[in-house]
Design a protein that fits this description.
- The protein contains eleven helices and 13 strands.
- It is an alpha+beta fold.
- The chain has two domains: 174 residues, no CATH class; 154 residues, no CATH class.
- The strands form three sheets. It has a nine-stranded mixed sheet, with helices on both faces. A two-stranded antiparallel sheet has the order 2-11.
- A hairpin with a 2-residue loop joins strand 7 and strand 8.
- Helix 2 runs antiparallel to helix 7 and helix 7 packs parallel to helix 10.
- The longest helix is centred in the N-terminal third of the chain and has 36 residues.
- The protein is elongated, with a radius of gyration of 28 Å.
- 40% of the residues are buried.
Length: 356
């Protein structure tokens, strides 16, 4: 009998207990996977948004619930343009209508001028080449109809999924004339992006300069709340999962006291018995990893799909996401196996054989 077969047979002695323990730990793993997938999605969206029009960075209203809630006065762009380190600015009004991304841009500014028109002609209503729209298509937005005059490519994944309308048209659709979502900024040759961004933040309190994806939480407070709460709950899940595994393995050791005594009597060392207990705990947590990854993918999709973030954020899964899930599962397994292993190793063979 192989070692893996021995471990599997031991776990199947109480299949219901093993299953419930794996599901309990799997919930914690799923939370980790969902949390990291949503966090990665937020960072990816931040990277796309801050580079709309190939800008070096973007200015947003600080501490709003999500990017679309940012409201800056349109007049701020002209003031930012006067900064000695700023080469050009571009006003952006972002609106999400039924899952459609609508960008309001000024045709005179760089965010609009940098579009490469791949079909039709440059005009007031254009669609990205990944939006699924064609020249001549009619788009209805909030009771108004618009005809696509051209298809553009910007090189920005986020922007190429959307629709571009004149800035003031989108402001009117949003019911916020004179207010924009962000200001895209390009810096002069030789100027430091971070230095210019920091200077503008100091000069205009309440404005957040996003120069890299990790700074998204300066704007998107709902994502920050999700991340902070998620890590706290994950820590609790680690503790509860460890307790669950400890209970399962402790019961297993108690029920198999005579068996352990026999193993010790025929020559098994305390170390080998300990490795068996730890292996069983880790096997349970590997089962939990499979369950948790599936639950995490499902939970992240449901959360984003049923929230107001669906048009902006999509869960993004990387190898690191699942590595963290694996690390969580193994940590629970090791923590949960500590006491049962200690108890099994300390069992004297003769006393164990007398156990009824």
């Amino acid at each position: 009998m192989t070692w893996a077969t021995l471990i599997w047979k031991n776990l199947l002695r109480r299949p219901a207990r093993t299953a419930f323990t794996a599901i309990g730990v799997g919930l914690g793993v799923g939370l980790i996977v969902a949390l990291l997938a949503i966090t990665n999605g937020v960072h990816r969206t931040a990277a796309d948004l801050m580079h709309v029009g190939r800008a070096d960075f973007g200015l947003y209203q600080a501490e709003v619930s999500d990017f679309t809630r940012s409201l800056l006065p349109e007049s701020l762009a002209a003031k930012v343009a006067r900064d000695p380190g700023v080469a050009a600015v571009s006003k952006v009004k972002l609106l999400v209508v039924g899952g459609t991304l609508v960008f309001g841009l000024d045709p005179k500014e760089f965010a609009y001028r940098r579009f490469v028109v791949v079909a039709g002609s440059r005009g007031p209503v254009m669609a990205g080449d990944h939006s699924g729209k064609k020249v001549g298509d009619t788009i209805r937005l909030l009771g108004r109809s618009f005809t696509v005059s051209g298809i553009y490519h910007s090189g920005d994944r986020f922007e190429d999924l959307g629709i571009v309308l004149p800035l003031h048209t989108v402001e009117a659709l949003a019911g916020r004339p004179g207010e924009i979502t962000s200001v895209g900024v390009t810096v002069k040759l030789g100027a430091s992006v971070k230095a210019v961004a920091a200077r503008l933040e100091r000069r205009y309190p309440g404005v957040a300069a996003i120069t890299e994806p990790g700074q998204a939480i300066k704007v998107d407070t709902s994502s920050r709340l999700i991340i902070s709460t998620g890590w706290i709950v994950s820590l609790l899940a680690l503790i509860v999962g460890g307790i669950g595994v400890t209970n399962t393995m402790a019961m297993s050791v108690f029920e198999r006291t005579r068996e352990i005594g026999i193993l010790r009597a025929i020559g098994w060392s305390g170390r080998r018995v300990g490795v068996m207990i730890v292996s069983e705990a880790i096997a349970i947590c590997l089962l939990a990893l499979a369950v948790g990854c599936a639950l995490g993918v499902l939970a992240a999709g449901l959360f984003v799909g049923r929230s107001g973030l669906s048009g902006l954020i999509s869960p993004t899964y990387t190898a690191t996401t699942f590595v963290w899930g694996l690390a969580f599962a193994l940590a629970v397994g090791v923590i949960g196996a500590l006491y049962p292993t200690w108890r099994a190793v300390r069992l004297a063979p003769i006393a164990a054989l007398r156990h009824e």
